[in-house]
Amino acid sequence: MSFYDQQEPDDALGPPPVAPPARPRSLLATKATWRHAVVIILAIVLFRMVLLESAIVEGNSMASTLLNEEWVLVLKPLHPHRFSVIVFTDPQEGTPVIKRVVGMPGDTLSQGSIDAEGQPWPDTRISINDAQYTEPYAREAQGGIIPPVQVPENAYFVLGDNRDDSIDSRSYGPVQKNSVRGVAVAVVWPLSRMRMIPAEAEPAAGGPAPAPTGPTQ
């Protein structure tokens, strides 16, 4: 009998063994992936620390632009301009507050006047460097009195949009630039009230504000 005749058929050996299924690998199964995760987390933290933060409005001093308990998005790298809404550290309390920049460094501003008899002449317009502005964001276009003030360099004159219910630069004076934490640009919560925050005023029609009768003081 030949050698070939002594071999069993291939079918007698049975099917070839089947390899067990490979275990799925976790995304964090390698040191490299762990390093990537750490880098991503650090990038998010750095982004949060350097570029933006959120702030919660407390109180009604910015109504009706911003309402109590609304959350706003604050961009830290932005530099405030006139009529920006900013978050800064309160010079009296040391807590973060939100107000509107009305006077820039070097500006001279005033609102209304007082006549020789001490009677106030409120005005809904505000005078900045001899130009008159109306403030559509100010609640119900309230009239007010702000004696002439020149804003120092490296400082801002801030006001709440709800002038009758706001403690601001009329009480504690201009705020220092280095106390500003960022510019508030949008309301992000609640979702039903998401919106951009207006940051513009309008030149007043009709020229300068009317002077009161008699000399002013």
CATH homologous superfamily caption:
Umud Fragment, subunit A
Sheet/helix structural class: mainly beta
Strand content: 25-35%
* Count of the separate structural domains: 1
User: What name does the CATH topology carry?
Assistant: Umud Fragment, subunit A
Largest sheet: 8 strands, antiparallel
Query: What count of helical segments does DSSP give?
Result: 2
Mean pLDDT: 78
Measure the end-to-end span: 134 Å
CATH class: Mainly Beta
Strand tally, please? 15
CATH architecture: Ribbon
| Low-confidence spans | 1-8, 206-217
Q: What form results from the Cα inertia axes?
A: elongated
C-alpha Rg, in Å? Answer: 33 Å
Which range best describes the helical content: under 10%, 10-25%, 25-40%, 40-55%, 55-70% or over 70%? 10-25%
- H/E order of the elements? HEEEEEEEEEEEHEEEE
Write structural notes for this entry.
The protein is mainly beta. It has one domain (52-203): Ribbon (Umud Fragment, subunit A). It has two helices and 15 strands. The protein has helices at residues 31-50, 169-172; strands at 52-56, 71-75, 85-89, 96-103, 108-111, 113-114, 120-121, 126-128, 131-134, 146-150, 155-159, 175-176, 180-189, 195-196, 202-203. The strands form three sheets. Strands 1, 2, 3, 4, 11, 12, 13 and 14 form an eight-stranded antiparallel beta sheet that branches. The protein has a five-stranded antiparallel beta sheet with strand order 10-5-8-9-15, with no helix packed on it. A hairpin with a 6-residue loop joins strand 3 and strand 4 (96-103). It is elongated. Mean pLDDT is 78; it is low at 1-8 and 206-217.
